[in-house]
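SEVERITY: medium
COMPONENT: batch folding queue
REPORTER: lab tech (J.R.)

DESCRIPTION
The queue accepted two submissions in a row. Attaching both inputs and their returned structure tokens so the on-call engineer can compare them side by side.

ATTACHMENT 1
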Amino acid sequence: MARKKSTISQTRSFLYGMARLLGDISAISKGPKATAKRIGRRVAGKATGRFLGKLFK
């Protein structure tokens, strides 16, 4: 049986999601160069996180 997420955890997840969305909107408003840079950094960060997750598993 899966554990129910606490209210604080749900709120924190929501706030992080909103911050990510606002960062995307900000990059789009700055132009295509900023958007491309942000996408590249997000991809690199995701790959690094996955690698570290496998390394310390």
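ATTACHMENT 2
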Amino acid sequence: MLNLDTHIFLYAVAGELTPAEAKLLRREQWSISAIVLWEIAKLAQLGRIEIDLDDVQVARALRAVHVWPITAEIAKRSTRLDIKGDPADELIAATSLVENVPLATRDRALRRSQLVPIA
């Protein structure tokens, strides 16, 4: 199983993955942190993406992924990372740590972490 950050999930839905990302995602079951749902809605509200949670492709993709809840343990772990980023990214990274699921991301700060398991 892989934990996809918001952008990797959106790239997958839009068919804009790199060949290496596409190969990786074909081999593994997908999961996302619950904060990814909020981030998609917020990005759409701000006009930064033209997609919403009711979009047919998004809804189909969401039915196929496991959604990790934001637990107290994940919230606490997000404050003890070796990187600083936006709070959503920190919760996504902490989800990978707590659930022991590699994170699929292009985010350079997250990829530099020595704690977060990167796919």
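NOTES FROM REPORTER
The longest strand covers residues 30-33.
No errors were logged for either attachment.
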